[in-house]
Amino acid sequence: MFARTLLMAATALAAGTAAVAETPAASPLVPAPDSTLINPAAEVLALEAERHNRLTVPVLIEGIGPFAFMIDTGSQATAITHEIRTAANLAPGGSAILVGMASRREVELASVSRIDFGSNSYSNFTAPVLDRAHVGADGIIGLDALQDFRVLIDFRKQTIAVEDASSKDKRGGFEIMVRARSRLGQLLITDALVEGVRATVIIDTGAQSSLGNLALRDRIRAKRAQNVITTDVNGVDLIGELAIVRSLSIEGLALSDVPLTFADTPAFDALGLRDQPVLSIGMQHLALFDRVAIDFGRQRILFDVPADVARAMRQAKNAGIYRARY
């Protein structure tokens, strides 16, 4: 039987590597006391210290649950773990080739009639079945279930939400709005600059660290600081090269001295970006913003920066120099 290919690029910095000490960690994401979100931090801290920096949402599967699912904008497919397949008694759904950051592996699929997350639902699909140890949650809500919605991460309130994009106004108070184009359900920012080199940017809420490909490394002639290890959803390790990138600019907002890992990964190949400079931005760097919204319905990504940075951007814009250092 032909096994279709699914892209699931989630990756996290492996605990215990030297890079953990070198790379600034994102602000811990713990739901506010009145939040309805579920945080499985106590369960996953022993697995991998970095994974607790990503929020989860409560999900019902076939009316059973709730289970803690991670929202992963780097994953093409919604996925479950073996424990959930057993608990919900899901029927087999064939197999697929799963493309992670480090590997391509054939995995089993399970047939799912319906999942519910908040007031939203996704029905009649097949989900890859993964090991919980490699996911850090009970499952993943992927791009297939998010196409009509807007994912809003609020680092000030420490929450994540899936919203109806059609009910939102044009900007909603966000300082930066970036148009994106869609490829395999993924929103790609195509006009970012890394040390003056134009690069494609992917916003990956399922990844802790940010990752660039070798084409980008070679174009900017990045000097390696040390080796780091990342682990993908298949449980396969990927050895990368950590370097400090002097500047990363998106729509006039420039990040300075950005720690970035470079590696050769099949996930970028699956998007047809092997020979083009590309990087995925994980929670490590998304946490520098106050809010980030990924609007799949309108194909745009919005960023809200801290008040002092927003003020500097407005002053620079008024002076005819739309560029703020962050």
Descriptive overview:
The chain has two domains: 4-9 and 21-165, Cathepsin D, subunit A, domain 1; 167-321, Cathepsin D, subunit A, domain 1. Helices cover 14% and strands 44% of the residues. The chain has eight helices and 23 strands. It has helices at residues 19-22, 41-44, 82-88, 132-135, 214-220, 266-270, 283-286, 307-318, and strands spanning 4-7, 11-13, 56-61, 64-71, 79-81, 92-99, 104-117, 120-130, 139-141, 149-154, 159-164, 176-179, 181-183, 186-194, 197-203, 211-212, 226-232, 237-250, 253-262, 278-281, 291-295, 300-304, 324-325. The strands form three sheets. The protein has a six-stranded mixed β-barrel. Strands 14-15-20-16-19-18 form a six-stranded mixed beta barrel. Strands 11-10-21-22-12 form a five-stranded antiparallel beta sheet, with no helix packed on it. The N and C termini lie far apart (51 Å).
Task: Give the rounded overall mean pLDDT.
Answer: 75
> Which strand-content bin applies to the residues?
35-45%
Q: Count all strands and give the number.
A: 23
Number of helices: 8
Largest sheet: 6 strands, mixed, barrel
CATH superfamily of the largest domain: Acid Proteases
What helical percentage do the residues reach? 10-25%
Main-sheet strand order equals 3-4-9-5-8-7
When the domains are counted, the total is 2
Q: Would you identify the CATH architecture of the largest domain?
A: Beta Barrel
Distance between the termini: 51 Å
Shape: globular
User: Strand pairing plus helix content: what structural class?
Assistant: mainly beta
Which parts are unreliable, with pLDDT below 50 for 5 consecutive residues or more?
A: 11-52, 321-326
CATH class of the largest domain, please? Mainly Beta
